[in-house]
Amino acid sequence: MASGTPADTDFALLVAVLPPPLQEAVRQLPEAELLEVVMDLGRPPEARLVSGVARLSEVPVEQEALQAVLTRVGEVGGDNRAGIERTLHRVSAIRNRQGRVVGLTLRVGRAIQGTIDMLRDLVESGRNLLLLGRPGVGKTTKLREVARVLADALGKRVMVVDTSNEIGGDGDIPHPGIGGARRMQVSRPDRQHDVMIEAVENHMPEAIVVDEIGTAAEAAAARTIAERGVQLVATAHGNTLENLVLNPTLSDLVGGVQTVTLSDDEARRRGTQKTVTERKGSPTFDIVVEMVSRDEVRVHRDTGGAVDRLLTGADVGGEKRRQQDGAVHVEAAPEVVEATPPGGRVPKGTPALGAPRPGPTRIAAHAVSRELLERVLRDLPVEAVVVGRPENAELVLTLRSRANSPRLRRAAERVGARVLAIKRNSSTEIRRALRTEFHLLEGVDPADVHAAVADAEEAIQRVLAEGIRLPLTPRPSRLRKLQHTLVVKNHLEAVSVGSEPVRHLVIYPLGTVLTEASDTAPEDVDAPEPDDDLEDDETSAVDDGPAEDEGEGLEASSPDEGAS
């Protein structure tokens, strides 16, 4: 980079605030790769680069060095951040319990033109745009360039709400990186939502740019701005759209979610469980951009549709864009299921809420020994991993005495996780429950099990959709029991008819079996299958005592005949 350019001057100003012994070490580093300089009391100073970490000195940082840096930068605010006047660099402080600064992070800020080339059409559309990404992925850099393009290239009246002076730089005169956009500074971080509303009411902007929406008040202010017809471009922390939907504080940005209990008829019509999660309303942001890296993004052009697909377990979709060698490469979004409006009927064939997603099944242990669960999983031929929180799971294993915990139910319903209750916290109970859940039968060919499950699931969907009775292919007794378990889970009825070896299950719509099955004269009931787990229970300390025998739902509680 040629000497004397604004970027070169900015970098020189950052180097100048460092103690003299560190200045020369930083100048030796590749400027384009430097992300931040870290100074912690009693530790050697380090420079963090795109490609790794470089130690700047073997001499530990002393208190005097930290204070010397603080005297050369702006005043540290309530968010423990400061800046260097008319630059984009950020200086963040770490304090001890007495309030004394014991660490500093000097982060390099850059204004890079062309960084939003792959998003330019979205910015020019006039629609509200939200950028999602982890810290350090370049959200603020892109947001700064958005402000410049809106103000200079599109000639709009743009107001930047700059809480920590990251977008427009430190000092009263904004950095040239935001072009002709105006900047409103925020006196305290907890006043950002007030300044957002003030910008709309006092300065008649056509577009507002905000960095890091993170509280419920700021989310409410963003909705107010959007409803007043002002284009809003903002950032939020979160890797994917799913992170935002699961964040109760920020989910309103994408329409919010609510738990709805359906009637029996509606649940059958949709082909889902009775309790489902739906989008509450229209999203604040029309478009959501997931920042995979500095040069790659995934674009959701219809936020509402993407959230609806996410809540039904369908493929969320998204358009992949990558910037390489000055060119933008676009990978068209795959075809996805039609979006469902709040309260609308789920299209036929759409997976139900909580439907299995690609990859290992995520299982959470609630009031159950995680060690026992992991031990049992190692012995079972299933693809599953144990996760720490019910909010991240597809299946929650818990004690029967804890299964009706309101907190657990809310967490499970929010993400559509299935709750599997066991009587005791033992490896025997856990193994029995998981074998039933994953359709594992000792001594039975897995291919036969898979065929029986697929046959039953296909028939169940037809019975739910068409309201007809449907016979299944003849199966051995143990496979009929497995099929009957699936029928009961879907709130239908079934009986076994015929004699071996052509004995088979017939599935009926709910409420019709008792009248229609009386004419079928089914054979004797299949004998129940004995337990094949005879090991001693291994009870953990988290077991909260024996629970009642009623309500066990892990295995088919009756033979495969629903009625005789």
UniProtKB/TrEMBL annotation:
Residues 336-360, 517-564 are annotated as: Disordered. Residues 521-553 have a biased composition (Acidic residues). It comes from the Bacteria. InterPro entries: AAA+_ATPase, P-loop_NTPase, PTPase_dom, R3H_dom, R3H_dom_sf, Spore_III_AA_AAA+_ATPase. This is AAA family ATPase. Pfam families: PTPase (PF25516), R3H (PF01424), Spore_III_AA (PF19568). PANTHER family: KINASE-RELATED (PTHR20953), P-LOOP CONTAINING NUCLEOSIDE TRIPHOSPHATE HYDROLASES SUPERFAMILY PROTEIN (PTHR20953:SF3). SMART domains: AAA, R3H. One of its GO terms (molecular function) is nucleic acid binding. Residues 446-511 form the R3H domain. It comes from Corallococcus carmarthensis. Keywords: ATP-binding, Nucleotide-binding. The keyword Protein biosynthesis does not apply.
